[in-house]
Amino acid sequence: MRRWIATIAAATFITAGLAAAPAAATPKPEPDPRATSVPRPPEPPGRPDDPPRDQGPPEEPSEVLEELRAPTDVDRSLEAGIQAAPVTNRIVGTALAAGGTGSVRAATLNTTASVTDRTAQRAGGADRYATAIALSSLHFTAGASDVFIAGGETFPDGLSAATVAGDRGGPVLLTRATALPAGVAGELARLAPKNIWIVGGTGAVSAGVASAVQQAVPAAAVERLAGADRYATAAALSKRFFPSRPPAAFVVSGNDFPDALGAGPAAAQQDAPTLLVSANSVPKATETELARLRPPVVYIAGGTGVVSDTVASRIRSLTGGQVVRVAGADRYATAAAIADRFFTPTTSRVVLASGLAFPDGLGAGAVAGASASPLLLVDGVDVPPRATLDAARRVSWWLPDDGRVIRYTVVAHPDDDFAAWSLLGQPDPRRYDVVIVLTTGESSGFCTGQPVNNQWMNQQYLPQPQPTGVQYSDRCIKHRMDSWRVFMDGTDVGPVGSWQRLTGGPVSLGGRELPIPQRRSSSGAVEPADYFDLSVGADAAFVSFDMGALLPDEVLWAIQTTRGLVDRFPTEVEGDVVGAAFYNDAGTGYANTSADHKAVYDALGRNDLGMPGSQYSSVGHAQSGRAFGAMVTGYCGYMCHPAASAPWKGSMGHFQYSYGWLSHGYWTPGTVDAHAGFSQYQSFAKWY
Predict the structure, then answer these.
(1) Given this model, what pLDDT does residue 69 score?
(2) Which helix (H) or strand (E) holds 519?
(3) 22-35: b or e for each residue (b if 16 or more CB lie within 10 Å)?
(4) CA–CA separation, 500 vs 504, rounded Å?
(5) Which of 331, 443, 444, 459 has its CA 20 to 30 A from that of 313?
(6) Which parts of 139-194 are beta strand (E)?
(7) CA 455 to CA 622: how far, in whole Å?
(8) DSSP state of 484
């Protein structure tokens, strides 16, 4: 199984001061209203979030179709929850807008910078030629050995040039067909390149322009790379710069530009050429070059509407290798899919360019490739496309150059862990995961005292012996926690060591003493819940509290108490905190206003814990403050089930195996905000 906790997003190392004891002048908190003496009811009192005793999967699970952006009546402004990152921390690089505000709006850039914990940066000029110069002067401050010149009036030659330029660490400058624009000669002189490559025939860059380029840098070697058409020019670039078999090749449409913009920096990352095809055929020049290269894998950027399966089949026969399509629902989602596949955190930049016009993206592609960063597309409105924002956030998880960083995941109830699953990533030696489960779930209406009986019992983990305990009983606690530990053991977070029972004491946050949590015992009496179990491993630690109904201050107490254990972990460098307690009162999607979940949501949304990283909480896709989201990696391995509908019908997933008995044997899978089960796509709010 893949590891379930995500890569860390944070910024500069800043030691978070942990207040292990309350300040002397701090007033005592108001008594918890639950601590008053109340007559015991005939049955143990329920908690506000208790499910119905007969809860099972609905006949038709709620399915919310993903939208490019939230409904217009939902406030997703910065003021609603997404706050600008402080200049002193949480900065992981830059979000670079290519072009002026007509290409990438100010609000689009600022929102992306805030969500990704980056500094907003813009490189733009009065026109496409000046913007290419601005991009070159911004990134290539010390000059460049190789500079590429392409026509700025059409896109194909510049797209092919951007890939090679990014791979060789040089800029792409644009020119008019018959006249070198003002400023380009001066930028060429500043760059002082050894080689200047003119891409395209004399119809795109005339002989007169080539002469002006040579005059600007007399010592440079100027060479034209061109073919009979756009396909042959791309093949000529490939042949010149990839004389031997590359590890991969990229194929994009030669009829339109958007998919190629995102593919260029990825190709540069892979040391791979980019070749052009038409929608339904492979031009002769491309065929010849693919047959010469014979790359082990060819990546097609874009869906079947721009590069057909017929073309993919022909490429496979030409190369004898693997053909992989990387695509999304539209140009924005395709660029995001490319970023997700080829770029890992943390990239030095996130580069934004218009997906509606090509010129600024040509120079931006070279800068993105040279800085090993993705190029993502925006659409001319204030809120970036969701796919763009999600991909930008994913590549912005901060990881240190050396050493390890702690990430805290705060789980409301055992089985809520999945709310953070979309943030999982490949195991990373630079991350140390600390999972905090706040309650043992013993108040759950699932604990009825009746034997577990469902038709999939022989495929599931079931707590033994049966029957389960009733609400608030030790038996119910054991069964809930047994399932949790079985699930955690199978997620490859650990292994962790033996469990140790510890007791927490007073802690404070911001000069305010946090109250000791309280819970109800099996007899219904109110008692302190200041104890917890700790298990520490080489790659992760589990902290299991046994609280009652949660209050925000109790959530904070548990987090601060866990932070006080930092000297027991292999690293003391803290990163992010993520609340795994799905909350949604937006009126769109699956509503979940559980009091315990809201306590986690409020605790993280209203209190800055002062960590170097950010604070997130799992929310509905249209919830106020929603900042970004991601797909759950290996979703079927967790949620597939024999009773599920396509595409999730299959053998028992690990989550279903571990927790199926809690929902009559079956949790319903779903794509977005799925009722009863857990979604393949998860969204997160961000406040700090």
Answers:
(1) 33
(2) strand 518-520
(3) beeebeeeeebeee
(4) 13
(5) 331
(6) 146-151, 172-175
(7) 36
(8) H
SS3 for 232-298 is HHHHHHHHHHCCCCCCCEEEEECCCCHHHHHHHHHHHHCCCCEEEECCCCCCHHHHHHHHHHCCCEE
* Nearest residue to 224 (alpha-carbon basis) of 195, 201, 194, 193: 201
Q: What is the DSSP string of 599-627?
A: HHHHHHHH-----SS-EEEEE-TT-TTEE
Q: 628 - beta bridge partners?
A: 684
Tokens 């002193």 found at: 88
Question: What does the alpha-carbon distance between residue 127 and residue 234 come to, in Å, rounded to a whole number?
Answer: 26
Cis before 171? omega within 30: no
Question: Can you read off the two tokens belonging to residue 458?
Answer: 């022989």
Helices (H) and strands (E) in the chain, counts: 17, 26
d(CA 111, CA 13): 24
Distance of CA 49 to the CA centre of its chain: 29
β-pairing, 146-151 vs 172-175, is parallel
- Rounded distance between C-alpha atoms, residue 188 and residue 172, angstroms: 11
Which tokens belong to 63?
Answer: 């399915």
User: What are the tokens at 346?
Assistant: 């943390």
In this predicted model, what pLDDT tens digit does every residue of 83-142 receive, in sequence order?
444 444 567 889 999 999 999 999 899 889 988 889 999 999 999 999 999 999 999 999
Closest by CA position to 121, among listed 325, 386, 350, 380: 350
Quick one: tokens of 112? 């992306």
Per DSSP, what are the bridge partners of residue 151?
175
pTM of the predicted structure, to 2 decimals: 0.77
Instruction: Name the DSSP letter for residue 329.
Output: S
Strand, coil or helix: 514? strand
**What's the pLDDT band for 442 if we cut at 50, 70, 90?**
confident
Q: What is the pLDDT of residue 426?
A: 63
**Residue carrying structure tokens 């890939």:** 163
The Cα 596–Cα 137 span in angstroms is 52
Q: Which amino acid is at 469?
A: G
Position 94, amino acid: T
Say whether 616 sits in a helix, a strand or coil. strand
Torsion of CA 132, 134, 136, 139, to 10 degrees: -140
Q: Where does residue 407 rank: exposed (0-12), middle (13-18), buried (19+ CB within 10 A)?
A: buried
pLDDT digit string, tens, across residues 160-201:
999 999 999 999 999 999 999 989 999 999 999 999 999 999
> Using CA atoms, how far apart are residues 97 and 111, in angstroms rounded to an integer?
12
Distance separating alpha carbons of residues 532 and 519, to the nearest angstrom: 13
Sorted by where each begins, the domain ranges of the chain are 85-394, 404-635
CA–CA separation, 452 and 463 (whole Å): 9
Return the amino acid letter for 600: V
